[in-house]
Write a structure and sequence with these properties.
Layout (H helix, E strand, L loop, with lengths): L2 H28 L11 H34 L17 H6 L7 H4 L1
Length: 110
């Protein structure tokens, strides 16, 4: 992979890291416990608990993505960067731009 392509992927990667960190902080704020002293109805409280569960799942997913992005950020200069972990073929540049934390080619990711 040429240096221009690597630079584009690095830029995309840094943007993804920043956006993911922002999402994580937002999700952490939204997933705080609902104090029992808040005077909301029973149905509203159940809805709030359900929404909290959805936000917690999104938080776990965002934290996992951040870990993957950090791993890829360390590997970006390695000789095996952009190589599929499964078939050892090249991961297309377009896939790495769209999903910089990809470790599998499209064929193997199915």
């Amino acid at each position: 992979m040429d240096q221009d392509s690597i630079d584009k992927i690095k830029n995309k990667l840094s943007k993804e890291v920043a956006e993911t960190k922002l999402k994580i902080s937002k999700y952490k704020e939204l997933s705080k416990p609902i104090p029992p002293e808040n005077s909301i109805g029973r149905v509203s409280r159940m809805d709030a608990i359900n929404n909290k569960s959805v936000v917690e799942a999104a938080l776990r997913e965002a934290e996992n993505k951040l870990k993957q992005l950090e791993i890829i950020n360390k590997k970006i200069g390695d000789a095996d960067f952009g190589i599929c972990n499964s078939c050892k073929g090249k991961i297309p540049f377009g896939r790495l731009i769209i999903r910089p934390h990809s470790q599998l080619c499209v064929k193997c990711a199915k």
